[in-house]
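[Q] Does anyone have a clean structure-token version of this?
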Amino acid sequence: GIGILMIASLSFMGIPDIFRVNGLKNVLAFIINCVAAIVFCIDAPMDWKFAGGMAFFSIIGGYLGGTFSQKIPRKMLRVIIISVGYLLASYYFFKVG
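[A] Here you go.
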């Protein structure tokens, strides 16, 4: 999703360390999600019984993803991120096209 695009964009901006790129991506994603949550709380009807579960599992996923990404070599992490990006782009290209 947007995380892969953010990593690609930040990498093209000249940040060489993939762990710094990933950390900055997480901070930016947090800010984006906070703004979206505020807008939804104010302007859109929400089914609050699902919101708590989504928040809980998002936090767990972020923690596990960050922990896992630090245990693998930088080069392999970059290959995984690029591969996922290509797979998602191909999937959506052929799904729509």
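[Q] Thanks! Anything notable?
[A] Helices lie at 2-12, 18-43, 48-69, 74-96.
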